[in-house]
Amino acid sequence: MTDFRILSVGDSAVTVEFGNNIDPVINAKVHSLCSLVASEKICGVTDMIPTFRSLLICYDPGLIRFSELCSEIERLANAGLSGSIAAPRTFLISVCYGGEFGEDLPYVAEHAGISEREVILRHCAPDYLIYMLGFLPGFSYLGGMDPSLETPRLPQPRQLIPAGSVGIGGRQTGLYPLDSPGGWRLIGRSPVRPYDPRREEPILYRAGDKIRFVPIDEKRYRDIETAVAEGVYECPYLEGGSIR
User: Fold this and answer.
1) Which of 116, 142, 147, 196 has the least C-beta neighbours within 10 A?
2) DSSP 114-130
3) What is the rounded distance in angstroms from the CA atom of residue 95 to the CA atom of residue 189?
4) Residue of 198, 205, 189, 206 lying closest to 233 (CA atoms)
């Protein structure tokens, strides 16, 4: 039996809540239910959007009633959510840290009381869980950053942050998929594009996957940047212990 509640969201969506915390166990239940609903191919379900702690399920009320959908959700959730998640992939995202690519790296190091090199080492150490996607296409909300790297956001957001920028904002770190405004402290930049409309799957990864940041030098950055521009770069990832 799993603790959850189903709430109506207008006349064509429901949200299934599993808790109030940002927690990997709760998030795993969200993705497990998402996987189960997708595999069941419930008639009338049109879309699903996983978040940190809940799953939004959109449906066509002309094809399935609210009460019928709730019954299906309850059946699946109560049957057990363990073991139904697709195996996560770990994407290896190359990042050139500091200098023109990460102008706030010195500030982050000073705030943490460590060297810039140590910031890079600690930032690259975890495999970050992608809890959810939002804000921009391919913007990932990551969990697992070393608490020592927590840094306050800029008092005044920048009007333009280049695509690929890697930043820290409070307790979170992330990768900007597009040019956009933003208030996070920039520590590096990746030539990899999490969102590319030219790809068959425009968004590189999905919620529930993981990201590992890999430090590179400027020459390697430029090489990957060229390959990305030419549409021939494929971001490596780990799946089942093997690199793909």
Assistant:
1) 147
2) S-HHHHHHHHHSS-EEE
3) 5
4) 198
Are residues 206 and 132 in contact, defined by beta-carbon separation less than 8 angstroms? no
Distance between CA atoms of 34 and 49, rounded to whole angstroms? 8
Return the DSSP state at 65.
Answer: -
CATH assignment at residue 211: 2.40.100.10
Q: Does some domain include residue 84?
A: no
Q: How far apart are the first and last CA of the chain?
A: 37
185 Rama class: left (phi>0) / alpha (psi -120 to 50) / beta: beta
Give me Rg for the CA atoms of the chain.
Answer: 20
Q: What is the pTM of this model?
A: 0.89
- Find the domain containing 209 and state its range: 90-243
Residues 6+ apart with CB under 8 A from 34: 48, 50, 55
- pLDDT winner (highest mean) among 76-80, 117-121, 132-136, 206-210: 117-121
CA gap 96, 221 in Å, rounded: 7
Under 8 Å between Cβ of 193 and 164: yes
Residues 6+ apart with CB under 8 A from 214: 92, 93, 94, 95, 124
For the record, the structure tokens of 7 come out as: 């709430």
Q: Report how many domains make up the chain.
A: 2
